[in-house]
Amino acid sequence: MMAGNWKMNNTWAETVVLTQSIINNAPDDWDEVDMVVCPPLVNLKAAFSVIEFDKAPIAVGAQNVYWEDSGAFTGEVSAPMLAEIGVSYCIIGHSERREYFGETDEMVNRKLKALLASNIAPIVCVGESLAVRDSQTHIDFVRNQVRAAFAGLDASEAAKCVISYEPVWAIGTGRTATPEQAQEVCFAIRSLLADEWGSDTAEQVRILYGGSVNVGNVDGLLAQQDIDGGLIGGASLDATSFCALAQACLK
Ligand code: 13P
Which atom, in ligand 1's list, is nearest to the CA of 236? Predict the structure, then answer.
């Protein structure tokens, strides 16, 4: 799976151009890799219009959701609203939302359950800060984040989720985790899933890596046993590099 987190980038017109350019540059056997683009909420429809017109096998994801279905929650958007326009994935718990918008583990858990109730696959982001890594407690830290996000789920619900391991110190810094560092944590996540919900479920959950992924480092990351794809920030804003990253999944 190769997912692009566009963050707060691109106008409506730019979304149309980038989506079309991704379709034009996509690998020949693109239906064998789950390509997902996650534009800002206001531009989800713009991405859809291009994808639907070209009948392209690319899914559209949102970057945020609120856990109530409707009501007096000014500025928020609900899972049923996203589902109705065809959104099939939604990023939750991204470190930028945790840091700048106060998203807590409990909120991530509520959002996750709301998404599953609307048949939208959550892409749950977890990852430690540099201080936590330096204190060598990153494995426990990340496993606790996963435990909290997945609290109360049964195995069939857990299996529908995607987890993205994104060490905060590697996001937008150009300093990517080494394949071994990423694998260590992704393996720890999969072991936790196996302990809680069984090994079949643990195998079904896709675990992505995110943080300064580019065409130069993607092969080493994807070669790791427990890394099933990438969640890409900066490099997903360029069609050629995003498509090259999708192509790397097919090797
Ligand atoms: P960069 O790829 O720009 O480091 O961002 C990663 C990220 O935050 C994906 O969600």
Answer: 2
pTM for the predicted model, two decimal places = 0.97
What CATH topology corresponds to 2-248?
A: TIM Barrel (3.20.20)
What residue spans define the domains of the chain? 2-248
CB atoms within 10 A of CB 98: 19
* Candidates 94, 96, 128, 138; catalytic one: 94
With the most atoms of ligand 1 within 8 angstroms of its CB, the residue from 2, 5, 38 to mutate is: 5
- The rounded distance, in Å, linking the Cα atoms of 89 and 111 is 12
Of 251, 249, 250, 242, nearest in space to 47 by CA: 242
pLDDT in tens, 91-128: 999 999 999 999 999 999 999 999 999 999 999 999 99
Q: What is the pLDDT of residues 195-218, one digit of tens each?
A: 999 999 999 999 999 999 999 999
pLDDT of residue 174: 85
